[in-house]
Amino acid sequence: MFLSRTKRYRMFFYCNTTAFITSLIVLILILVKELRWNAIWLRLLQFALLLDLLELVGGYAAGNRREVRTSVYICVLLVGIFTYVGLHVLFFRHLAPEWLGEIFRDI
């Protein structure tokens, strides 16, 4: 792949490298006990997990053969990820019960 499709190889390489580094950052954020209940660090952890997932999908898309079937699978996967994140934000911002909202506001 390096000799035949250099651009795709570079995208695959960079996506996987940044996904690995992001995974290390997530591990560090999880292991630091003093920061575990800080709201800013929890949002940073959520953002890092989302970024890691998107980087892995980008690496998968670059490393796969570009058939129509695999491209459709990747697009469906991305739509599913963004739908889940949107519903998650919508639920915890507007639809969550009061007692659940109070628990997460105190964190």
TrEMBL record:
This is PGG domain-containing protein. The chain crosses the membrane at residues 12-32, 44-63, 70-91. Pfam families: PGG (PF13962). Residues 4-64 form the PGG domain. It comes from the Eukaryota. Keywords: Membrane, Transmembrane, Transmembrane helix.
